[in-house]
Amino acid sequence: MTTATASTTTDSTPSLVTERTWQDAVCTLIDHWCLTDTCFSSGQLARQLRIERPDFRYAVTELGEFVKDLFHQGAIEYRDRHGRVSAAVQVPRRTDGRSRTPANTEVFVYAPTPMLGQAHDFEVEIPRPGFTPTALERQRFAAAAAQANAEMLATVHADGRLCIPRRAFEQLSHATGVSMRGGDKVFIAVELGARSTLRVYLEARDGCVEHGLQPDRGRVRFTAPGQLPSFTPGATYAIEIDDDGLSITL
């Protein structure tokens, strides 16, 4: 990620005074925290913006989806003292209920390693916004919330490829405790039957074909495996979490 160099405040966080948009401010904070080897959540980003730039108009969910986009694009990177770069890991966590956020809410922490992400104290109180959203802003915020809470459906696109959306992998990460990095491989197996089933895993196993998470949206798209007939464009299939994988009955 590339942002302008920012001066630091007395508490060693960058000044956000000159940032033009909330997206620019988020990138500045992420750059700083990555350079200082600091773990963070989107809630911590939202809190910092609410405190330093209460004039910015955004929803916390909207900010969270923006950070997920950056993550899958490979724009969140840590550098060690030798200059070596590694992509951030997205670590699944749940809240304890120490803030307004209800207990057991699913949260992602971004960290150099899964161990550091699991140890990070991410729960913070996010100040309420100091503005009343316009009708257009309410539509924008609702769209972000719909994306974050979308129904888990696999859809066949016009080119015949089946698309498994990002949300399915996020839910599987929380269900299994397996952390992800942008561009990670997922592993797909076929179970043949009267209604064949696709099994999708975050970790490698025998008999699976691997596909990479796409950097644009963190989703996976693929044509029908050789054992199956071609997928029908426009078809949709429910995605279920089944033990340590996703299950898609065709």
Topology overview:
Blueprint: H1 22-35, E1 40-41, H2 42-52, H3 60-72, E2 77-79, E3 85-87, E4 89-94, E5 106-111, H4 114-119, H5 135-148, E6 153-156, E7 162-164, H6 166-176, E8 180-181, E9 185-191, E10 197-201, E11 209-212, E12 220-222, E13 236-242, E14 245-249
Antiparallel strand pairs: 1-5, 2-3, 4-5, 4-8, 6-7, 6-13, 7-12, 9-10, 9-11, 10-14, 13-14
Helix pairs in contact: 2-3
Average pLDDT level? 91
How much is the radius of gyration in Å? 20 Å
Poorly predicted regions? 2-11
Order of helices and strands: HEHHEEEEHHEEHEEEEEEE
Helix percentage: 25-40%
Would you tell me the structural class of the helices and strands? Answer: alpha+beta
Strand order of the largest sheet: 11-9-10-14-13-6-7-12
Instruction: Give the termini distance in whole angstroms.
Output: 39 Å
Tally of separate domains:
2
Biggest beta-sheet profile = 8 strands, antiparallel
How many β strands by DSSP?
14
Output the number of helix runs.
6
Shape from CA axes?
A: globular
Instruction: Give the strand content.
Output: 15-25%
Written overview of the protein:
This protein is α+β, with helices and mostly antiparallel strands. It has two domains: 22-148, no CATH class; 153-249, no CATH class. Helix content is 28%, strand content 24%. The chain has six helices and 14 strands. It has helices at 22-35, 42-52, 60-72, 114-119, 135-148, 166-176, and strands spanning 40-41, 77-79, 85-87, 89-94, 106-111, 153-156, 162-164, 180-181, 185-191, 197-201, 209-212, 220-222, 236-242, 245-249. It has an eight-stranded antiparallel sheet. A four-stranded antiparallel sheet has the order 1-5-4-8. Strands 2-3 form a two-stranded antiparallel ribbon. Strand 9 (185-191) and strand 10 (197-201) form a beta hairpin. The radius of gyration is 20 Å and the shape is globular.
